[in-house]
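ARCHIVE CARD
Drawer: 12
Card no.: 0347
Subject: one protein chain, sequence and derived structure
Cross-reference: see card 0346
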Amino acid sequence: MSRATLPEYSRTRLAEARGRENFPIAAWLLRPSRREARAAIYGFCRLVDDIGDERLGDPVGQLDRCREELEACYTGEPEHPVFVRLRPVIQRFNLPRDPFSRLISANQQDQEVLTYSTWEELDRYCDLSANPVGELVLALEGIRDPERISLSDSICTGLQLVNMWQDVAADRERGRRYLPAEVLAQHGVDEADWWRGRPTPGMRAALAHAVGRARSLLRQGWPLSASTPGLMRLEMATFILSGLEASDGVLAAGDLVFERKARLPRGSRRRALLGSLAALRPGRSGTA
């Protein structure tokens, strides 16, 4: 049996994709070595996400091929440019295999699991699809203690949830519903109403409930911004405040969020950065 062919990924393509992200890595804050390491990790994440979401060929076979290439990063010589770029980063920073493997598993799960029943199920999915990214970013700085990883998990899950609630319309078109059925039921939403995409009071309430949970998780992760080294403190705070700004955008979109992606509020990135600078001054703590 022949192996699946992975799509080619140029650095230009990755730069274009990163520019469309809600929460771009602030590369200007990073030393060149960290910038290259982050870019290599991002390239891996973008490749597996696009395979999982964009149907660039045979997603099942391509994700299996990604797992083979990941294994080669640790035990041999990878062939695909994304993994060739990633291998020296893994070696230099002694990055664990598990976070990369979980990211592949998340996209494999997306091929089979289209809806979620409970928050517990969705949390487990976010532990595959979002939390590993934070773990890898911390690992680049030698941060591997359970306490800070737990704070990172709160931030990453919160950001993932915000992205989901921004994209409920696009996910519905793909046949996916990340908003748990238990939340819909709690607010009296009929499943058929959700798939029709016609806003009802219950749908609005269910989405507001979900946005509130994302905001709570982001706030729970705030202590990480005070316990990371150097300018990484500013970056962590900016991520959190950007997530809160994006959640405001979901609520501000009103019923339009059920038709198209909710946009970031005007000036949100600037406010997040300025808010981070203010919040991290001596004597200041917490989020708004």
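Annotation on reverse: The CA atoms of residues 121 and 180 lie 8 Å apart. Residues 25-112 form one domain.
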